[in-house]
Amino acid sequence: VLEDRQLQGLGGWLILVGIGLCLGPLIRLGTIGQNWEGYFSVHVWQTVAMPQGELYHPLYGPLLMFELLGNTVLLALNFLALGLFFSRRRAFPRSYIALLSLNAVFLILDNIGCAQIPSLASTAPAAKAGAEGGRAVLFAIIWCSYMLKSRRVKATFTK
Question: In this structure, are residues 21 and 78 in contact, taking their beta carbons and an 8 Å threshold?
């Protein structure tokens, strides 16, 4: 069909998807770098994750591991989706939907975990954390719907 041929290619709204996919690893690496000391510093772990630490909470250690593992998995999935996007693979829409969905779930679970730890709950306002999770859910709903319904997506990712 001629109209579907005109829709082939990384144009239209897919340009925004591509920009987001390219910026995603930079943002995720920035987040990991920003929290690097919290993940790997013995001093931080002794302070928050060991029973004798002054800010100890039993959920702190698991939360730090969850954040590092979650960010690493999302970073890897972002790179996978990026490769599938530029090679126009049929698996791209599913991988992008997985990336967006897992990111939203990760943010919500991370915010719930942070809210359970008094020293974190007092520094990170619940409204800000809730808004971040809400934005991720809204973003996922919009772009997942686009991936599932768009004729351009169906015409472009065919390999």
Answer: yes
Predicted pLDDT of residue 121: 80
**pTM > 0.85:** yes
**H or E stretch including 71?**
helix 60-86
CB 10 within 8 A of CB 88: yes
DSSP secondary structure string for all residues of 80-100: HHHHHHHTT-TTHHHHHHHHH
Confidence at 131, pLDDT banded by 50, 70, 90:
confident
Number of C-beta neighbours around residue 114 at 10 A = 19
pLDDT above 50 for 115:
yes
Rg, C-alpha atoms of the chain: 19
DSSP helix/strand/coil, 56: coil
Instruction: Give residue 126's pLDDT.
Output: 61
The C-alpha atoms of residue 80 and residue 72 are separated, in whole angstroms, by: 12
Per the CB < 8 A criterion, the answer to whether 158 and 90 are in contact is yes
- Give the C-alpha separation, 83 to 157, whole Å: 12
User: What integer is the mean pLDDT of 146-154?
Assistant: 94
Give the position of tokens 């996007």: 85
